[in-house]
């Protein structure tokens, strides 16, 4: 297919920056999903406008464009598009499995501790009253228990991505501008998808698609186009000032005595930070952080070989499984803090144990996949037909 001269795919091979950041995002999402947990003060949501969800969606867009963009260039739209749909189906199946296990988990623990309020707190009470309708709404992604909003967003973005990828490969900047136009129109006109039994999606796909597309644009040559900004020394100063501003505003929203540091009208303009519709301040904050990472952490940074970063990298490489496991563990941890003890030592314990279990799963999945590779090579020549059946 014809490709724009502006398109430049990243070098082949893993970019450990993406793996490590996605692993950190999985850990942060787990911690942030445990309310009243002192340990989640270490996550980025407490010190700026953007948080782990922004990082997860951006990296997902980057990775999907990098993987399937190369395939679309080499093998065409139909084959690449079918592979994107296959991946979307895998994520959908993972979501459904997590959906069933999550509801069973909450229902069982609510009954065990004789606390029906947990059903409402996790937004699964409707399932207990009308399981058939609620299950149907869950299948079409309209019904989502608490903390299960990210994967439905990811699924929708993947399903509509093939034509977006085709357009990015031909007219990357124009496609990014079209994504921006949809983002602005959705915020202006209030476009969103309906949720069940009421309301709308917590992550508005019409606005969050912009961050996903930005990630894809970076993967297809946007990084090279942005390098003059990234390498510009004079832009590091306003960038750092904005990050400090975001820090003070965010902390000022949590500690009223800090609101005296900046003029009151700045807090009024910046809080609340609209996560549902992806407030522009979140995008600016995230892009500045991204520029600093690109500037100061090169792709071939020797630090990635250090053992301390290995757990994060593996959790990023096995992202889907680790993410789903983290949602399950966060629900269990929340109920433990409510029903057993909410002491600080317990908050630390459930957080550390949860991350350890997520990391253990990542190590197991990495080991298991390595075992599968020799077995696949040893198959006879006729085996592909069996595998494809």
Structural account:
By secondary structure, this protein is mainly α. The chain has one domain (about 15-230, about 270-365). Helices cover about 70% and strands about 0% of the residues. It has 17 helices and no strands. The radius of gyration is 22 Å and the shape is globular.
Give a quick set of tags describing it.
disordered C terminus, mainly alpha, 389 residues, single chain
Task: Produce a short descriptive summary.
With 389 residues, this protein is mostly helical.
Query: Helix fraction?
Result: over 70%
Mean pLDDT figure:
90
* Oligomeric composition of the shown chains: single chain
Total helical segments:
17
Write down how many β-strands occur, each being a DSSP E stretch of 2 or more residues: 0
Shape: globular
**Class by helix and strand content?**
mainly alpha
N-end to C-end Cα span: 30 Å
Strand content: under 5%
Main sheet attributes: strand count, strand direction, barrel closure: none
Low-confidence runs of at least 5 consecutive residues: 378-389
- The whole-angstrom Rg is 22 Å
Succession of helices and strands: HHHHHHHHHHHHHHHHH
What is the count of distinct domains? 1
